[in-house]
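Example S7 (structure tokens).
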């Protein structure tokens, strides 16, 4: 697959700077195509800075792609969002900057594409001469258009067309809202084409004209340039950016299968031939006379054995009896009241939220055994200072999550002195303002895979942030 992607951006007719940027390239391993359009907002300089930050973050995080793609895209958006937000706090002139973007990742080998989207940039799929809008505009006017309350023409002329309600850089920690980033995936069949574009195109060029240009003959570069020209011919009010990607594999031709002709076949089944009967001649048994000497010998042997057993048993009964050894069990240290109370509360908990109040646990919770969490999902929040400390002779984990646990949040807890503070599986654990003191291994994660299967993927990095002070968390 060569020359199957192309990107282009243009300042337009009415602006003298370009806040748009794009990505149109393969990943470092060559297995995926990255098609992305980023539209910066927030002033003359800020928009460009935000767009560049997002672009660099995407190129870094998606240099190699493996495993479950969608969580990787969401994590990349979260990283870019945090970097933009932190930069805003550092530089006063950039306090209003943000960006919107649409990112498509195309799996070349398996004919699939995955996407993530925030804002009013757009993703279209062209298949069989039909142009389908995949992403949804995160704006009030976009909602009206997507829901059919506004026609495309009315939406293009609406005075609040460019007012968005989602963008990277608006607020930190976007992953707390699972619906913030729009995601999805779909087959990318031979002959399919993806269009990723900024609103500088779709605010001026309607879907009918876009489809007409995309279905013309010519290269992707020709089509990309024609889309830019079409926007500029309509006034070029904004920066306009276009990225195209096509599955240029040869379409598979399915051979028609002719109906089978019914043929009557005569099959002769040979009857089994009768087997000859085997006649066994019974010979008369030969009777041997037994000698009495053998019987006498057997009886003598049995008598000697019985006599020996009687003598042995008599000797054992007259030996002095030794006192039986008693097994001494190691002393079991009783569990602390806080430990018993916490495990009992977890076992009887109805619902998925547990608030641990410092008023109920007035001193550190001393653990001499692991606290087991067996729920699929659970939110444990400390109200006040809640500290887990290990008993002097205990060497196991403080908390152990069950293999079936999928989403367990620990909020504002502290662990002191454990070799392993929390033992978990897969990606079930979420930490918020959790403190580890003198813990050799704060979190030990085991990944569970099916037996005898081939596993591909990677462990995500940068999912945790380290701060000297606890972060304020919105309620």
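Recovered sequence:
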């Amino acid at each position: 697959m060569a020359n199957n992607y192309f990107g282009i951006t243009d300042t337009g007719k009415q602006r003298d700077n370009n806040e748009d940027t794009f990505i149109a390239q393969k990943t470092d391993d060559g297995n995926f195509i990255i098609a992305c359009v980023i539209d910066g907002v927030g002033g003359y300089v800020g928009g460009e800075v935000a767009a560049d930050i997002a672009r660099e973050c995407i190129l870094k995080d998606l240099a190699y792609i493996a495993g479950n793609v969608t969580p990787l895209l969401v994590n990349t958006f979260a990283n870019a969002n945090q970097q933009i937000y932190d930069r805003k706090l550092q530089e006063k002139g950039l306090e209003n900057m943000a960006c919107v973007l649409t990112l498509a990742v195309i799996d070349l080998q398996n004919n699939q594409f995955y996407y993530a989207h925030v804002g009013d940039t757009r993703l279209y799929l062209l298949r069989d001469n039909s142009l389908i809008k995949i992403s949804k505009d995160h704006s009030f006017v976009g909602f009206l258009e997507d829901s059919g309350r506004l026609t495309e023409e009315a939406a293009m002329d609406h005075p609040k067309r460019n007012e968005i309600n989602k963008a990277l850089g608006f607020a930190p920690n976007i992953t707390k809202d699972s619906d913030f980033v729009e995601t999805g995936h779909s087959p990318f069949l031979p002959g399919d084409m993806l269009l990723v574009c900024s609103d500088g195109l779709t605010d001026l060029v309607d879907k009918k004209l876009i489809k007409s240009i995309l279905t013309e003959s010519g290269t992707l570069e020709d089509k990309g340039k024609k889309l830019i020209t079409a926007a500029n011919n309509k006034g070029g009010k904004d920066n306009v950016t276009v990225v195209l990607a096509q599955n240029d594999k040869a379409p598979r031709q399915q051979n028609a299968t002719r109906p089978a002709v019914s043929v009557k076949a005569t099959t002769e089944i040979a009857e089994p031939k009768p087997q000859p009967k085997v006649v066994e001649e019974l010979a008369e048994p030969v009777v041997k006379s037994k000698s009495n000497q053998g019987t006498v010998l057997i009886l003598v042997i049995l008598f000697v054995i019985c006599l020996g057993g009687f003598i042995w048993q008599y000797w054992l009964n007259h030996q002095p009896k030794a006192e039986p050894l008693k097994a001494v069990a190691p002393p079991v240290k009783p569990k602390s009241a806080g430990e018993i109370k916490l495990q009992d509360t977890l076992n009887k908990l109805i619902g998925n939220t547990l608030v641990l109040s410092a008023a109920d646990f007035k001193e550190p919770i001393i653990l001499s055994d692991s606290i087991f969490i067996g729920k699929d999902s659970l939110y444990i929040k400390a109200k006040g200072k809640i500290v887990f400390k290990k008993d002097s002779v205990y060497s196991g984990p403080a908390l152990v999550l069950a293999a079936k646990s999928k989403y367990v949040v620990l909020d504002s807890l502290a662990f002191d002195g454990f070799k392993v503070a929390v033992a978990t599986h897969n990606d079930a654990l979420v930490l918020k303002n959790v403190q580890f003191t003198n813990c050799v291994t704060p979190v030990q994660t085991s990944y569970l895979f099916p037996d005898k299967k081939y596993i591909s993927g990677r462990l995500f990095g940068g999912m945790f942030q380290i701060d000297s002070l606890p972060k304020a968390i919105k309620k």
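Notes on this example. The longest strand covers residues 377-390.
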